[in-house]
Amino acid sequence: MLFNERMALKIRLEQLNNVEVKIFQEIRKEREEITNRLRELDAMEKNLQGDWPVEAYSPNEAANAVDSEKRILGRREEVSEMRKVAVSILKAQNEPIRGVDLQRQIEAVTSRKIANMTTFMKALMKEEPHVQKLGRGLYIYDYED
């Protein structure tokens, strides 16, 4: 059997996968060691000073939690706005509209990008039962339900 470039590439890919697994294991092990040591230090501090406040351990975590909550709520509001625009566009159409065309119109109105139109429309159809998928990529607002 000849040793060709394809086999060499497959072997190298397997070697890279093995190295990657080892590196991840080392990182996981180091992370566990650091976490355990921090727990030990926290326990020692708690014994010496009484109750140890969590914020003193990592002051940015509380701020980060608030920021991430704002980001989540902000994203939900954006998606909600995009869904309202989608429904209004579908209501304005008297005939089925292609998903790609609908996506372009929504993105033009909201100035926001839809990463996955299928997922977006599935969520919209759950929220708004009048929005229906007729066929492959065709959507319509059905008034007769």
Automatic annotation (TrEMBL):
Residues 24-51 form a coiled coil. Pfam families: Rok_N, WHD_Rok. Residues 83-139 form the Repressor Rok winged helix domain. Keywords: Coiled coil. The lineage of its organism: Bacteria, Bacillati, Bacillota, Bacilli, Bacillales. Residues 3-42 form the Rok N-terminal oligomerisation domain. InterPro entries: Rok_N_oligomerisation, WH_Rok. This is Competence protein ComK. It comes from the Bacteria. It comes from Bacillus smithii 7_3_47FAA.
